[in-house]
Amino acid sequence: MDSVTIIVEGLRAVLVFLNLFFITGLAISLAFFPRFTDMGLMKRLAWSVVLSIGTVIASVLFMDFVLGVNANLQNISLGLGLFSLILLVVWFFEVYYLISSLPEKLHHAFAGRFLTLRRYFSRLMNSREDRFARTAMTRVIWHESVRAGISHIDHTYLIDVREAIDIQQVDETKWKVSEPSLIPPPYPRTWYFELVIREFSDGNVSLIDDLQLYPVQVTRKPDLTLLGYRIRRGALKIKERIYHKTDTAEIQWIYSHDFHLFAILYSEDTLRQMVDRVLLKLDEIVTSIKKGSRVSSHLEETQNLRAEFEGVLEKPRKAPAPSIRAPSVKTPSIKEEPVKYGTYKAYSKPIDNDRRELQADIVRNLKVSHITPETFRRSDRMILDIKIPPKIGVDMILDSIRDLQDDDWLYE
Questions:
Q1: In a domain, 104, yes or no
Q2: Which of 70, 269, 312, 371 is 20 to 30 A off residue 384, Cα-Cα?
Q3: Bridge-based pairing state of the strands 152-166 and 169-173
Q4: Which has the closest alpha carbon to 120: 149, 144, 104, 148?
Q5: Cut 0.85: pTM above it
């Protein structure tokens, strides 16, 4: 036997071994999980070996008991090779389908109908559990759940608080350009709220990824009737959210931040625990509004704390010392004449008053609370505006400085 024959037989034995214990299982895993990101490399290799062994056993039994064919090594390898080839063709078309625009077109054509049907059946399946989701003032009317990914489920709850309340809204500007401002009345009224939760669930763990709560306006679908008799009352349908968002601003319920924080503060809660927590918070808000002592929201508490903190950090202003005015002394230069109610009105014309006395008299009744450091920078600008020629006498410079010094008493 020459070396070429040995190499060919060796390659054939390797291919038969891979076909029996690896290739078939790999083709099966690719057919069911076409994306390489759907399964890790080590996990895919392990499943390929396990599935290949199981396929070999199943093919032997199928040949013996169904086809009646001799299950030798050649027949088994040929059958598994054809089976693997068919699976690889299926995988090729799956990949082509995923990278093309066909899924999006099919989604727009059929997703609406199937999604509505799935939501309807999810209401029926969740209705038994929703009976126990209630408090004294709040209750869940219906609950829809739709799978949004491999490990994520989107839940939508319609909650009734049993009494119409005012929805006080806040206008928040994006990027914190300005402080949030409350929108003046009239306020919209409703007693229905939409709770939107994205749940992460891998079969063993249930965690909350996102949580949003919106006040909503609802409408009721037509009743189901037969021969003029109502068989079933029409279900409630969400008409619109009392919520508005643009690229620069967001208008939402003043309590929205309280519920946004739930997914962060109680990250270990399961779906049922989180829903119960939201119902209790809504019950607290509605009860306080009903009693006339509305509980403050997280936004209001934050603004109050910020105002108190800024008040503490504000630099106290020095109170002006009270000035005691000395009794005026009558001088011959003052002429007095009596006026009504026994008072006197003095007409004085100081002739030889000292300049410092005149300064004290002006500053005594001068209000300085509005004066800032910017006020006194005018003298700096005056100095900068002085243009000194290249050749000038020293006496002229000294005269300009004296003029500025004579005005300094106004700023002391």
A1: no
A2: 371
A3: unpaired
A4: 144
A5: no
Question: Residue 27: which domain range?
Answer: 3-99
User: Using DSSP, how many helices (H) and how many strands (E) does the chain show?
Assistant: 12, 13
Same domain, 154 and 184: yes
Together in a domain, 129 and 87: no
Rg (CA), the chain: 43
| Furthest C-alpha separation in the chain | 149
Instruction: Please indicate, yes or no, whether residues 198 and 227 belong to a single structural domain of this protein.
Output: yes
- Residue 340 structure tokens: 């009504």
CB 194 within 8 A of CB 213: yes
Do 291 and 143 contact (CB within 8 A), yes or no? no
Sign, Cα dihedral of 357, 344, 326, 370: negative
Judge whether 316 lies within some domain.
no
Helix (H, G, I), strand (E, B) or coil at 87: helix
Q: How would you class 138 by CB atoms within 10 Å of its CB: exposed for 0-12, middle for 13-18, buried for 19 or more?
A: buried
Crossing angle of helices 41-62 and 73-99, in 10° steps, is 130
Q: Position 399: which residue type?
A: D
